[in-house]
Amino acid sequence: MSPFRFGPDSRQLHGVYFPPSGASLRQTAILLCAPFAHEATRSHRLYRVLAERLARAGFAVLRFDYSGSGDSDGDFAEATLTQWRADIVRAHAELLERSGLREAAWVGLRLGATLAWETIALGLARPVRLVAWEPLVDGARYLDELMAAHMVFLRLDFGLGWAAVRQRIAATLPINDQAFGFPLTPVLRAEFAALDLITQDAPKVPVTVLASIVEPGLETLQARFPELDWTWLQSSSPWNTDAAMNSSIVPGDLLDAVHAALAELR
Amino acid sequence: MSERIVQFGERRRLAGTLSLPDGSAHALGFVLLNAGVISRVGPQRLNVQLARALAGAGHAVLRFDLSGLGESAAASGTASFEQQAIADTIAAMDVLARETGVTRCVLFGLCSGADNAYASALVDERVHGLILLDPFAYATVESRLRAYGLRLLLPGAVGALGRGFKAFARRCVRRLQHPLGTSGVDPAAECHRNTPSRQEFARQLAGMTQRGVAVYLMYSGSVSSDYNSPHQFERTFGRELARRVEAEFQPQVNHTRSELAAQRDLIERVLGWTKRKFG
Fold first, then answer.
1. What are the strands, taking DSSP E only, across chain A?
2. Which B residues 167-186 touch A at CB under 8 Å?
């Protein structure tokens, strides 16, 4: 596990490279694309364990933080989904250079899966496979969910009643300008509002969707793209929460599902 | 301000990020510890924001991951988590001194990070300052009564009275059972802390302040079941210790500073306190 920074000095990204080990080294590297903000905090441990496991199976693996998030340069208030898609492309190139391999598959969780999907559909990069793990289908719905979850969290953490939470939010902020301590700028909100996988083309690479009933749009997405490889998971994790002290949860069956989706890669 | 990654400690298994000011650094550096099991980025990216703000004010700052957390490998020894956390924090101060030349440190920690910073300050005299968010809190009869009273005054109680005494009584019972709120969850309690006795905490704080350590304690609204008054520290530990330790009750913010205003407020308080205490 080697943390490092990459990209131009003006805006470097933080990455962690997991060199391959084990008896058989694979010819395909794996890029892990993080979910959104607080969900990335919650899945940090999960990605580390997944990366270590894939490295032991012979894969070179890179996880990284988008611009303005995690340990990367920049302010979250400057973050845009457009920039984050460009960051995926940059991380893909960095992974190939660092591993010395010629091809990579991508794994994305939640927003990471959606951004990876869009990046491929836009022709910005061409991995050999995408594992889309519970992708966000409808960005506008996600904004609503963020706000609702933020209010629930305030209620639980402060012990405030619903009326007090609504009053607090109405008194101190425009609705939706932040969630779980991360700013939701007008640009970012507009990008989320426009995000809709149903209206997009399927990525022109093999796609495995790891779906759960927790994400309500996935059945619709399956109806739209039945030709993709669909695996319905038996469990999920409450990603959209700020249960910070539970951020080390690593559901083993979910890691099994991701690993299985990559097992046949050479 | 610039940043770079450092790997240090036994087998270079600990990972951290150094934030460095553009010009010459202040002789006082900062070490930021993990909050719970969250990586060194911190909840809501709090450690990143604070490190960059402090570096902007001229201080070298190291945020790092304890053994087994974030991007640090697990320790190979048999030390307890608490002992290993102290050893890791000392190693962090070593690398900060080696890389930047700072000779004095402020340790910053939230929740379990506060506990680990506190324990490290007890044994390492390079620590000249401690900033602890929701550190050990000691409930008093007064604070318990206030917590219950606050619950009864929350929105809904008056309306419930109007809907009938019976319903109101049921709500009162629930609130007495769960003075923090409907969940009854105390985020600090979730850290499973080894809290020293009140007398020991007082003795240790007195010893540190006599050694010249500046101590800044901040208690959030999330721990108001135990700590809920601006005067609680003085009433618990006496005027003499209260004169030497800065202790604030901040009911407007929650445990992990989940609102942007709370993050800005924290950073301003830390910068202001540092300026006042260390110039």
1. 2-6, 13-18, 28-33, 61-64, 103-109, 130-133, 178-179, 182-183, 207-211, 229-232
2. 178-183, 185
Question: How far apart are alpha carbons B185 and B163 in whole angstroms?
Answer: 28
ipTM: 0.90
SS3 A62: strand
Question: Residue B157 — φ and ψ, nearest 5°?
Answer: -65, -45
Interface residue B55 vs chain A (CB under 8 A): no
pLDDT tens, residue by residue, B92-151: 999 999 999 999 999 999 999 999 999 999 999 999 999 999 999 999 888 888 887 766
Contact check, Cβ <8 Å, B43/A3: no
Question: What DSSP element (H or E) covers B250?
Answer: strand B245-250
Q: Which of A30, A11, A40 is nearest to A98 (CA)?
A: A30
Length of chain B: 279
Contact A257, A233 (CB under 8 A): yes
- B residues 19-48 near A, CB within 8 Å? 35-41, 43-46, 48
Q: Which residue of A lies nearest to B35 if distances are taken between CA atoms?
A: A245
The DSSP output letter for B12 is G
- In 3D space, the residue among A26, A41, A55 whose CA is nearest the CA of residue A128 turns out to be A26
Q: Are strands B14-20 and B2-8 parallel, antiparallel or unpaired?
A: antiparallel
From first CA to last CA, the distance across chain B in angstroms is 19
Chain-centroid distance of CA B232 in Å reads 17
| Cβ-defined contact of B183 to A159 (cutoff 8 Å) | yes
What is this structure's pTM?
0.89
Q: Are A234 and A253 in contact (CB under 8 A)?
A: yes
CA distance B175 to A159: 10
